[in-house]
Specification:
- This protein has 532 residues and is mainly α.
- Helices cover 68% and strands 4% of the residues.
- The chain has a four-stranded mixed β-sheet. The protein has a two-stranded antiparallel ribbon with strand order 1-2.
- Strand 3, helix 25 and strand 4 form a beta-alpha-beta unit.
- Helix 7 runs antiparallel to helix 8 and helix 7 packs parallel to helix 17.
- The longest helix has 34 residues.
- It is globular and about 80 Å long.
């Protein structure tokens, strides 16, 4: 017991150190992170909590709740009259992830907390500037309370129903209608599974109670919140957020974010990292009563299924599922193992369950000691050659961090049948691997995706052009460039005027030459040209 607790405490310390390091070391990356930080900066500088704009144009993709929290954090950390810093922008997600860990420990015990730390995707994006950690925190009552109903073989009372309703409404107010649809779908599916045990009559009765106590009040509260948004932000917000961002995205993949029917299930499997073999091995050794204990699994699968039906697919859509999978893993860990004679032979499926860990370790090892093999697998293109030239060769600290990741992954592969009996020990191996991976890749991403924009913006400022100068970026609109130029300048605000400055990727150098611009700065990924 003492060893397990020590492993768990060490894993918690490593995860906390990783998040604190990322909080102060990682800038906001293109596209979503810098975009949301730009919107929060505009809101802060204007003093208007209902102003949602990017580079002076309305941006109604998401509700204002996360922006309010970023602005509040910025006032505490950055002071008044400044842009929202990357540290302040990450604070709401950090607090949300810590809240998820605390609540998982309270409702699922230490095993649930350790299981969550085993997840590759949630740990690495736990303080990303996205809406999903905050929404996932808001959804926890709609996960925990129904899980208790099914475990205790009962339906909800009206107080519990109202708590679930409030959870769904807050989650919907934070990001979107999936905050209402995921719990509703999970309750419906799990009730349907109970038909054989409870009988149709009781399933119908309990379904009506859940509908009356939780779902309909949740729908009413969500409608009230959206009515307030419509009154304060205008009908244009309702049209863009509710209709375009929900219904159009479900029919057509927006911004090329598409994928096949297994996309989000693949994210859960491979993004689970060490959580995937931990959950799989626990399942193989137990014989869980899924009707009693399986509501969290139904919740996670409903989340993946809901977004499978949408044409637009992104990996962070799976965020609400991770706490559910951690809770389900904890419930498995608390069950007694079945007789060895009834076990499914672990060797048949053990390597498959550990495939995510093997892939992480192999990638880290190739990058550290044999980058040539890795680079040969990449498609040859001017953009790729530019990025490779600015990243490789890696410095020795990056190689050591990647080797730590590889060693953790392959050590787990060797000992996985033993380590997966302990969520704490699995969490320790996981956090070691993820910490090495993040500390290696964050500086690389900074050099590729952030620093070049701030370098060209600094050069532009040194020339002190008029505030309304046309600064044209030939690539897609860059939220990171917006942050680098703000608040004095904005990109692509030209109104058919010739550009004073033109910024292009290095692999499109001929654009500057062809149009008669003078090259004044070159960095690893960008060119800055000035009109003659």
């Amino acid at each position: 017991m003492a060893g397990r607790l020590n492993a768990g405490k060490t894993a918690l310390l490593l995860a906390g150190a990783l998040w604190i390091w990322t909080l102060y070391r990682a800038p906001t990356f293109d596209f979503d992170e810098s975009l949301y930080r730009s919107v929060a900066s505009s809101m802060k500088l204007s003093g208007n909590p209902w102003l949602l704009e990017w580079d002076g144009k309305p941006l109604f993709h998401k509700p204002p709740v996360l922006y309010w929290l970023m602005v509040a954090a910025s006032h505490l950390i950055d002071g008044a009259g400044t842009l929202v810093s990357s540290t302040a922008a990450r604070i709401p997600s950090l607090l949300s992830s810590l809240g998820i860990l605390w609540w998982l420990h309270r409702k699922g015990g230490k095993h649930a907390t350790f299981a969550f730390l085993c997840g590759f995707f949630p740990l690495l994006t736990g303080i990303a500037v996205i809406f999903d950690p905050l929404q996932s925190l808001a959804l926890l009552p709609a996960l925990f309370l129904p899980a208790e109903w099914f475990e205790q073989d009962r339906g909800p009372n009206w107080k519990e129903g109202l708590i679930v309703a409030g959870s769904m409404a807050i989650a919907s107010a934070t990001k979107g209608l999936n905050g209402l649809l995921i719990p509703t779908g999970a309750l419906g599916l799990h009730l349907l599974f109970h038909t054989g045990r409870w009988g149709f009559r009781r399933v119908l009765t309990e379904g009506i109670r859940m509908l009356g106590f939780a779902i309909l009040p949740g729908l009413a509260l969500t409608a009230l919140v959206y009515f307030i948004y419509n009154q304060m932000l205008g009908p244009e917000f309702t049209r863009e957020f509710l209709w375009v961002q929900h219904f159009d995205r479900s029919r057509n993949p927006m911004e090329a974010h598409g994928g096949g029917p297994v996309y989000h299930f693949a994210v859960l499997f491979f993004g689970g990292g060490f959580l995937t073999p931990l959950l799989g091995y626990q399942w193989l050794r137990k014989k869980p009563d899924l009707l009693r204990w399986g509501y969290p699994l139904t919740f996670a699968l409903t989340c993946a299924l809901l977004f499978t039906l949408s044409a637009t697919k992104l990996p962070h859509y799976t965020w609400p599922a991770w706490a559910a999978l951690a809770l389900f893993t904890a419930k498995l860990a608390s069950q007694p193992e079945i007789e060895s004679s009834k076990l499914i032979p672990e060797r048949r499926v053990g390597f498959l369950l550990s495939a995510p860990v093997f892939l992480i370790g192999t990638l880290a090892l190739l990058l550290a000691i044999a980058p040539g093999l890795f680079l040969q697998s990449l498609p040859d293109s001017p953009q790729g050659r530019s990025w490779i030239g600015s990243v490789f060769p890696l410095d020795w600290t990056t190689k050591i961090a990647l080797l730590v990741t590889a060693l953790s992954c392959f050590s787990f592969q060797t000992l996985r049948r033993t380590l997966t009996r302990s969520p704490a020990k699995t969490a320790l191996a996981a956090t070691l691997a993820y910490a090495g991976f993040a500390t290696a890749l964050v500086p690389i991403a900074d050099r590729l995706m952030v620093k070049p924009f701030f370098d060209v913006a600094s050069t532009i400022r040194s020339k002190a052009p008029p505030a309304d100068s046309c600064i044209q970026y030939s690539g897609p609109l860059s939220a990171t460039l917006s942050l680098a130029l703000a608040p004095e300048y904005a990109q692509n605000r030209c109104q058919d005027r010739p550009a004073r400055f033109r910024i292009t990727p290095v692999w499109r150098e001929t654009e500057c030459v062809r149009e008669g611009y003078r090259l004044i700065e070159r960095n690893p990924t960008l060119l800055l040209c000035e009109s003659p």
